[in-house]
Amino acid sequence: MFRYYLRLAFRSLKRTPALTGLMIGTVALGIGVFMAALTVYYLMSMNPIPHKSDRLFAVQLDSWDPVEPWDDERPEVPPWELTYADAMALLESTVPARQLAMHKASLVVQPERDEVKPFLEQARVTAGDFFAMFDIEFLYGGTWDRSADIDGNLVAVISEDINEKLFGGEDSVGRTVSLNDRDFRVVGVTRHWNPTPKFYDPNNGAFDEAEQIFVPIGVGRELSLFSSGNTNCWKDEEVVTFEDFMGTECVWWQYWVELETPDQKAAYQSYLDGYVATQKELGRFGRPLNNTLTPVGEWLELRRVVRRDNKVLVGLSFLFLGVCLFNAVGLMLTRFVGKAPQIGVRRALGARKSAVFSQQLIEVGAIGAGGGLLGLAFAWLALQGIKRLFPYYERLAELDFTMVAAAIFAAVATTVVAGLYPAWRVCRVPPAGYLRIQ
Amino acid sequence: MAFDTGPIVRANLRNKTGPMLIAIQIALTLAVLVNAVFIIQQRVEKITRPTGMDVDNIITVQSVGIGDGFDMPSSVREDVAALESIPGVIAATPSQHVPLSGSGWGTEMKASAETDAPRENAVQYFMTEHWMEALGVKLESGRTFAAEDIDYPEQFGEVPDSIIITRAFADALFPDGDAQPGVTLYNGLNDPMTVIGIVEQMHGAWVGWDKLGNVMIVPTVMPIDYIYYLIRTEPGQRDRIMPQVEETLVALNDQRLIKDLKPHAEYKEDSYMGDRGMAILLSVVVGLMMVVTGVGIVGLASFSVRQRVKQIGTRRAVGARRGAIVRYFMLENWLITTAGVLLGTVLAVGVNYWLVVSYELERLNPVYVPVGILALWAIGLLAVAWPARRAAAISPAVATRTI
After folding, report:
1. Where in the sequence is the domain holding A113, given as residue range(s)?
2. Residue A174 and residue A157 in contact, taking contact as beta carbons nearer than 8 Å
3. Where does a domain end: A285, A302, A319?
4. Same structural domain for residues A333 and A401?
5. Does A390 contact chain B (CB < 8 Å)?
6. Would you call A386 and B281 a contact, using CB atoms and an 8 Å cutoff?
7. Which of A123, A253, B113, B227 can pair with A213 through a Cys bridge, CB separation 3.0 to 4.6 Å?
8. Number of structural domains, chain A?
9. Closest-approach residue (CA) in chain B for A32
10. Using a CB-CB distance cutoff of 8 angstroms, which residues of chain B are in contact with residue A241?
11. Which residue from A117, A239, A308 is facing B156, i.e. has the nearest CB?
12. Cis peptide before B192 (omega within 30 of 0)
């Protein structure tokens, strides 16, 4: 029966090609625009590390200015980053399963191979736990020894891409790479890793590329590496040397911990509060006690990773979809009423209301499916446009399977819902009137 | 002249689904149109506001020293002299960051040495004597730096004697608007700095910051191993001179990387990428929406013409002129559109309320509503013109058929 109805639907759609095209086109436009906006939103708000996101916590301590909050708009939020002194002190804790303090830094890379020119690369000064904590796989070698975080041994982990560039993709463990004019020993090569959003440090753009070189915390001290990310200061302090800078109240270190159980989390929270309490006795931390542990999902919301503009676009494109659907309903009514005589004859020949109704719905569903497919093409086009407008969002403008399925489902579902009324109108056609005209 | 308002309203009330759909569609369109155009207008204003700089004729480039042999102060002096000797170059200055790039160095200054003195944030740039010519910034009062004002310290923490600030920053610190060159500002450690000049206008680092116009220029070359150069060329010479900039710098000293050689305008474009993209995307959505609504009106009007062929024929047969038929459909459409825009005005305010509450967007300027209404009336009348003409072409003879 279904196939028969489908055949009927196609035959009837073919009879009015312009109107059919208009309906499919309208639905497709609405779906295409809405899906494009939704895709960017969906990819922006993706959880980059789902299996661990409730065990990883961003640490914030409110070490900011006693007379002014870090963020005037949201005074309850502590600074995003920590001071050097606090970051180093927290590393002493034995509560978390894993923990790390880190910041971004620019390094000049001078390749051994003459054909590659020296280049500036973003590196991450971090603790050896970084890779295990964020589930980064190694192609060769592994992380550095914990002692490097303290001693500043010149060791480095490089990414697959950098390894390709510097060593032609060979196993480079044990080889030497020159960073900021110092010789570093490569201890590991990571597999490609580029989480979207860049949850672990969204300070300079939540959709920035991940760093390609990783060096131990101790190296940061050894080479006097300032942050190439964000550094924020509130206190007026005399700074002449890098040592001076390390001693300031400036915040420039991101801090993450891995806590496996709620008990562990509670224990760590009280550890933090205890630490800040002792610091308060020393005259630091002039603000009310406000130490937070934020899991990944909440962290991304707190950091407003999804831009307001994107939410506005999703909202407005939804209204646009609404306009398109109302339009499609109007066109369907035109069609259905236009074929009322035919329906009248069918009803007179014995077709039940329910049969007419379901036949109409199948026709509407076919329009929806057509609109969905064409809508996908429109969405793809729109995403190409978005990529050109926002080169920065390149990774966020890709259709994936979920979105394709969602688009087709949404198109069919919304058109069928929209088609309910016209179909109902049509199946109520009184047979007698139309027979008379014949 | 008789208008058929009464019969039209009664006819549409009796068969209300089609007109209602169009009215709802028009209402939604108005709601989106008004809010989107309002947002577009704001973004365009933001992007096109004057920067105070000659952005289109400036070249930027970064120089990063490699190794201990690289001496920034002497390198800067040589580089600037060489860059300024390129024919077509007006002037060049070093700077630790590029204005409008999204990277910058903020600082807080006080209007006097007292602890409770007014304080204000600004972004600071470390530049040399030709900076004003190199950026195309205009001096309002006082003087610019002389070569001997420029410091080349070997370590951090040195405090400059003299600075130049923007009028916006001066007014923020001295709200009476009477700040003149010669006034002294203080940093947090109460080190005094004399304002020797005030410039009309210059934008700083972060285009989303409400204090973008607060800028302070410090006559210092910082002891860091990277620096940018901002090089202003004669109008139209920028792209020709760009490769020469790289050649000149590479020839002077190879103990460094030359990076990010590009027009200053690219930084500006990147900084406004979000705003520009939003404006373009919204324009596309609005454009498509008008088309879809127009098509919807054409569809519905054609349908109602087809349904009323006999009625129209009868009217023509009993003496109605073509003009009367056209007027009938035009008026009918106008009434439906008007119902739509009335509903749409409420919706537009609702959508705006949602945007204001949820996303802290600005409240709608009411002027946009009547403009949107006029636009939709125009679209409605244009869209109905063709079906109405077709209706008018119906022959009176139709009335006599199929009875």
Report:
1. 50-302
2. no
3. A302
4. yes
5. yes
6. yes
7. A123
8. 2
9. B285
10. 155-156
11. A239
12. no
- Do A265 and A127 have their domain in common? yes
A94 and A230 together in one domain:
yes
pTM of the model: 0.86
Torsion of CA A124, A126, A132, A133, to 10 degrees: -100
Kindly state whether residues A298 and A329 are assigned to the same domain.
no
Residues of A within 8 A of B354 (CB-CB) are: 315
3-state SS record for B262-273? EEHHHHHHHHCH
Q: How deeply is A134 buried, as exposed, middle or buried, from its count of CB atoms within 10 A (0-12, 13-18, 19+)?
A: buried
User: Tokens in use for B326?
Assistant: 């056209």
B154: closest chain A residue by CA: A240
Q: Tell me how crowded residue B270 is: count the other CB atoms within 10 A of its CB.
A: 17
Residues from chain A contacting residue B298 (CB–CB below 8 Å): none
Per the CB < 8 Å rule, is A313 touching B282? Answer: yes
| Least confident piece of the model among A10-14, A76-80, A371-375, B312-316 | A10-14
pLDDT tens-place string over residues A111-128: 877 777 888 999 999 999
Backbone dihedral angles phi then psi of residue A320, each to the nearest 5 degrees: -60, -45
In sequence order, what E strands does B53-179 have?
A: 58-65, 89-95, 106-110, 119-126, 139-142, 162-166
Q: Of the residues A283, A302, A321, which one is the last residue of a structural domain?
A: A302
B115 in contact with chain A, both atoms CB, cutoff 8 A: no
Q: What pLDDT does A435 receive?
A: 67
Bridge pairing between strands A213-216 and B184-186: unpaired
Give the nearest partner residue to B25 out of A33, A313, A326, using CB atoms.
Answer: A326
